[in-house]
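Consider the tokenized backbone below.
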């Protein structure tokens, strides 16, 4: 299913294959020989999404751009089932395994591997040829790749990255943070009310 969002329609190369249950919305460019499988969602929420050539987006993966953080995915990238990429740059020949999470402002260097259920956090840069092991967390600049049992170290780096401030423009110490966050984010997402199906 393809949707016009905020006046922009997806542009899909004629050699790309998009499953009938995939959703592609807004300012999205899909390159030659890409494969977008069932249940995948590629949604440009005010920022553009560009997929290079031979990109595979597997079942139920989510790729989301924001006005602040567009998404660029290079050539020969595999985005695994149930993986999530939000506002990030993914260079060529990257493997994002099942269940991986890549957050806003992240940059993953060429030939890197983010293995099953691993996380590349907000504004984190992975140099080329980096591996994030199964379930581990890459966080900070310069990057630290930490096992999930090191929560205090992850939080120390993550706190400085300021997720609510960077993504939502809200101070973490706001007493009603979640009230303001959900109201602000909800208003942005409500712009989908005017989407128009184009296929």
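A designed sequence for it:
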């Amino acid at each position: 299913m393809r949707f016009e969002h905020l006046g922009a329609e997806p542009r899909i190369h004629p050699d790309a294959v998009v499953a009938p249950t995939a959703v592609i919305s807004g300012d999205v460019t899909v390159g030659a020989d890409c494969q977008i499988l069932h249940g995948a969602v590629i949604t440009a929420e005010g920022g553009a999404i560009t997929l290079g050539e031979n990109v595979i987006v597997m079942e139920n993966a989510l790729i989301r751009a924001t006005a602040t953080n567009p998404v660029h995915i290079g050539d020969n990238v595999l985005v695994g089932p149930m993986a999530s990429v939000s506002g990030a740059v993914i260079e060529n020949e990257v493997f994002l395994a099942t269940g991986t999470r890549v957050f806003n402002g992240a940059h993953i260097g060429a030939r890197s591997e983010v293995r099953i259920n691993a996380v590349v956090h907000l504004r984190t840069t992975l140099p080329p040829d980096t591996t994030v092991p199964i379930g581990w967390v890459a966080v900070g600049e310069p990057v630290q790749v930490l096992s999930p049992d090191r929560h205090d170290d992850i939080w120390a780096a993550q706190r400085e990255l300021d997720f609510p401030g960077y993504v939502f423009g809200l101070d973490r110490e706001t007493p009603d943070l979640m009230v303001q966050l959900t109201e602000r984010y909800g208003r942005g997402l409500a712009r989908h009310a005017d989407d128009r199906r184009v296929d």
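The mean pLDDT is 95.
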